[in-house]
Amino acid sequence: RKVGPQRACTFTRGCFSYRSMPMRLTMPAKPLVRAAAALADGNRVRILRVISGAELCVCELCDALGLTQSTLSTHLRVLRDAGLSASRKEGKWSYHRLTPLGQSVTEAFFGVFPSVLATDAHLRRDQARLERRLALRDEADQCCVGSQCRSMESRSLGYRSLKSRERKGGV
Questions:
Q1: What is the pLDDT of residues 58-79, one digit of tens each?
Q2: What is the DSSP string of 11-45?
Q3: Against a cut of 0.70, is the pTM above it?
């Protein structure tokens, strides 16, 4: 017998069959599914965590999270497509921030897991790196690495440089 999309479910040999369920999402469900998919990746959760505090430049995100620019760009696109983040260009730099929807989603999401935020080693390390990286901002509170920095040393403060300084007890 044929099973049409009007039928909500069917049982085949005692097991639920997804074949009878309509695969097309209705318009109201798409934003919910996109937001859930955006939260389903650990790197995107880390990105949301660091941009929840401030608008950040891509190079600041790369340094704080230890991700390459291409990997970060892919994850930021997913977050933008889900409506959780937005970006703006200023010269060569691209700054990313949470949207109002992103702010409410992350507050609710992180509010469910307060102990994880306090104890997770990756999130704590990301926050420590971000604080060190934000200390390099210029007087206008803008990213300055790669242009008019306060010192030549801060220009080379990439991820590998941060890792080696952490091992030596610096930064």
A1: 999 999 999 999 999 999 999 9
A2: EETTEEEGGGS--PPPTTHHHHHHHHHHTTSHHHH
A3: no
